[in-house]
Structures are given as C-alpha cells and as structure tokens.
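Here is one chain, start to finish.
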Amino acid sequence: MDNIFNKISVSLIILGIVFYGLAMTFTALIPSILGFLMQIVLFFGRNLPQFHKHFAHVNVLILFLGIGATYGSVLDVLSYLLQGVDLDRPLATVEQFTTFVLCLVGFILAIRSFIEARKK
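Its structure:
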C-alpha cells in the first residue's frame, strides 16, 4: 500500500510543479500540497509501525478530499468533450481533472487493498 501512496503522491507533486511552471499561479501548487501531505503521512507510517494502519487511513482521507475538491472538473471535461463547451480556464481544468484521476485511482486501489487485507 505504501508503494501506491508513494507513487500517487510523487505524481501529484510533479503535476503541481509542472502546472505552476505553466500557469504561474499559487493554486496550481495544490496537487503538490496534497502529495506533500501524503509524503509526511507516509514518513510517520514508516517510523511508527504500530500506527501504520492509522496513517494509511489518513492517506485515504487525503485522497478522498482530493476527489471531492476536483470532481467538478469531470463535469467541465465531459461538457467540453460531448457538447463542445469552451473551458473557462483550460490549464486549471486539465490539472484538476488529472488530480481527480490520480486521487480516484489511489482511492480505489487503497480500498481494494483494505478489502484484501480484511479477507486474510
């Protein structure tokens, strides 16, 4: 599970840095902040193994918050793809949608991992 959290968090950090370079706005760094928070939680999970499960749940919560904060971009992207509606802020929408996808994938993999662990 830590491997998944690590890959998702590094991807979020890189995403935020790349889009900050393109847009030069502070809000472009929000995915990087999410990724950095996940890295902090991973650090504590590795150094306090007795609380590892708790820290894994905190990372799932961070991913869930990322999904909740960016789900609106899915509607924007669908409107653009299906109806040809112009995007008000194309860079922001693409970044938010990518953040949504990364967080959703991480969330689904985490839940799947929790279910498999429960079966054992």
